[in-house]
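Note to self: keep these together.
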Amino acid sequence: MGDPLPGRSVEGLEVANRPLPRRRRLLFPPSPFASQMTYRRARSARATKRFGFVPAALVLLASGLILAGCSDSPTGPQVSTVEVTSETNRIRVGERVQLQARLRDGAGEPISGPQVTWSSSNDAVVRVSDSGEVEGIALGEARVTAEAGGASGELTLTVVESAIIQAVSPAVLRPGEEAVITGANFDPSPAGNTVRVHGAPVQVLEASETSLRIRLPDLLCRPPGPAPVTVQAGRDMSLPLDHPFDPGEADTLERGELRLVTSSPEFCLILDGGSSGAEYLVGVQSTSSTASTRTTVRLQGFRGSRLGSGVTAGSEAEVETAPVAVAASTFRSQAAARLQGTTLPPPPRGEREHLIHDHDHDHGPASADDAARWRLHRATKPGIREVEARSMEPVLAGLPARAEDMRPTGHETALASGTPPVARVSANRQVGDTVSLKVPDINTNVCQNGFDIRAVVRRVGARSIWVEDVNNPADGFTTADFNRLSDEFDNRIYNELSDHFGTPTDVDGNGRIVIVVSRKVNEMSRNTLGFVVSSDFFPNQCPGANGGEYYYAKAPDPEGEIEDNSGETRVYTRETARRDAPVLLAHETTHIIQFGRRFQLGDAQGSQAIWLLEGQATLAEEVVGHAYTG
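Structure:
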């Protein structure tokens, strides 16, 4: 391994405390001087000489690898340059900013370990801590120096006043347009300025100390009126300057009119509050078909003044934000349980029947059977809508293109024909009268095919007429049931739906919704609890329908005697039918409002999407459910 180092003694040896790779060993031949040396371990990375000479070789110890050192020069890489950096070189009085010192060796490689010492050329302007945090003390300039290992670097900082906004142009700010802010003490770099309009960040295109050119985002959903504009240069924000802002034209909706937004993950609705105030219902519908999916949305509402010509006074916008988790579109609504679990005011003394069953204090308001039945019912909706779309396609294709050619005049003109139909169930019908009706065939064609039935009028209410198929099973709804169902619909459900979705049309001129309770609904589908179809709005084109506002309900079948379309029978008790009725009435009457108002406005070219129809109707269940529970 070589001769010993003549005339040289070693005061210490550095031990590289790194394990050797597996399967590699260092072999040392015998040395005549080996017996002259012993070692003791002082630290994990250092061995010291006891006596004798050190052979010019590597000596393997248990603690690592010993390197012979024979030079008096310092060990490790030396600091060659120090670079001082900051997120900004302009700070405000009282503002604190953390500086960074980057150390490099002669080869330009970064190094760490040496202690950094910080200093300021003027502590009265900029003060710096031992960790490199600077603070603006007074207006002016100061150099901050970082020194390490004999090398140093510095950064000049300027302490300036806060940004000041003096003017904004043009006269009115609008989404997607550019504007210029003039003032003082802005950061000359666009990235050094944060500009907000009405609290929303906007893009800074150009910057100088006295001017900023900005561009507002295309979607800036804020109310019209004075909008506060602020500039933040560094960490200090300017005082706000109010400037007129116009988000665009507001939507003016009639009661029951609908706006649908589906194309963007972020959208803005501008709604006109009207001279005396207006109320709007916003529904969020998930289009996922996976039952476990939850879509989180954020609804943020702003309220402000309407912008007139020029600068107008107005109140500062009030903001309300609500995070919402929206379930997938399985059409399973909590409103069913809410309505079913609500107890109406007690009936007259001696009458023990309730329209909606009492709370079960052990199991909650809705049983597992109720939930399963409603899941199956809602699962039939897409099939019914598909048959309806096929049935109505040739009818809708032949309708006039102009809305005024379809709109009715009062109650005298049917929506989809020039000849008024003869009301099958007129308003002057009396309880006990028998009428001939159709029940549209939801399995083949709801327009051309319908089942003929004879039905008895059971109740004529203020907003509804209830009729019962003469061939329904015995022990169905009682007179008390019909009366209470009618009262509940006329006095609560109808009013809630009209307030939120608009008043139903009146194609047949009787001023009422006709509710047909028929075994034909049971026979056509095992799981359908009731339905509404649009063919009833086309009396002259659809011989399988009735011409009017009709809802077809499943008949109570306490003994399970009715065979469905699969040849099976199923018990459907009177009590269960009573529990289902309020939710069904809320949901299906909403379809009547949807179809009628759509055709009344002349928008009948094609069928609406299933998720939209059913989503809004399910929302109606929630609306009515909240009316029940307060």
